[in-house]
Write a structure and sequence with these properties.
- The chain is an alpha/beta fold and 233 residues long.
- Helices cover 17% and strands 42% of the residues.
- It has three helices and 16 strands.
- The strands form three sheets. It has a six-stranded mixed β-sheet.
- Strand 14 and strand 15 form a beta hairpin.
- 36% of the residues are buried.
Length: 233
């Protein structure tokens, strides 16, 4: 996936009210950019970090700028726009990047299922077999290439795991897909130290037959694409 416009580099001054961020541009201007991330963004909002923004020419938009990428620890790139991983994974499935998810004849996004939820991707084979794929964006790096999900307590995440379990119990295939949008992460684990209840639900889901995949994303300030599988620990 290529970014539709050239990203604009700046320096993060602060993130506030969850969806807003002040960014200093190279010309000295300070702009307010939309932060498309509902999570805590732990370790991905360091003061004065290099960030990259996209800019929309749509006059109806309240904020022209959107925060897309951040440099973490002056060493790694991470995608903080949680609207992009689903698109990245969808493109990778269509291209056959993940052999584990290949061979399906139909691919649909945001299909209603469970308890008033939508599955990120529903794959269907020619004989009607279904595979439900729930995508999670992983950007929390803590040490030695170890990434964790979630970065904050998430009741919604536990609900999704329970719904995937239900799909397995109904005879379908269900996959939790960790889209690792951080260049410094080489393996992924449930963040028991942050959300023990999620870690318990994760372990239950695995024991019930929910599959877990983790794939790393190659990131530059021009494009992003799902690259290769990494370990889930």
């Amino acid at each position: 996936m290529e970014f539709p416009t050239t990203l604009i580099e700046g320096r993060l001054l602060k993130r506030y009210k969850r969806f807003l961020s002040d960014v200093l541009l190279p010309n000295g201007d300070v702009v307010v950019a939309h932060c498309p991330n509902t999570g805590s963004m732990k370790r991905c909002q360091q003061e004065n970090a290099r960030v990259w923004l996209s800019k929309s020419d749509n006059p109806k938009r309240k904020l022209a700028y959107t925060w897309e990428l951040v440099e973490v620890d002056e060493a790694h790139l991470a995608c903080i726009n949680t609207g992009l991983p689903n698109k990245l994974v969808g493109e990778a499935i269509a291209k056959g990047v993940m052999t584990e998810l290949s061979g399906y004849s139909e691919q649909k996004a945001e299909v209603k299922y469970g308890e008033k939820s939508r599955i990120d991707w529903l794959l269907t084979s020619t004989n009607g077999e279904k595979c439900y794929v729930e995508v999670k964006n992983v950007t929390l790096l803590e040490e030695d290439g170890k990434g964790y999900f979630p970065d904050a307590v998430t009741e919604r995440g536990r609900k999704h795991l329970n719904e995937l379990i239900t799909m397995v119990e109904q005879g379908h295939r269900a996959v939790l897909f960790f889209c690792v949008s951080h260049s410094g992460i080489d393996q992924v684990s449930p963040a028991r130290h942050i959300d023990p209840a999620y870690a318990d639900a994760f372990e239950l889901a695995v024991s019930k037959g929910v599959e877990v995949l983790a794939y790393k994303v190659d990131i530059t300030n021009k494009k992003m694409e799902v690259s290769h599988a990494i370990a889930v620990c």
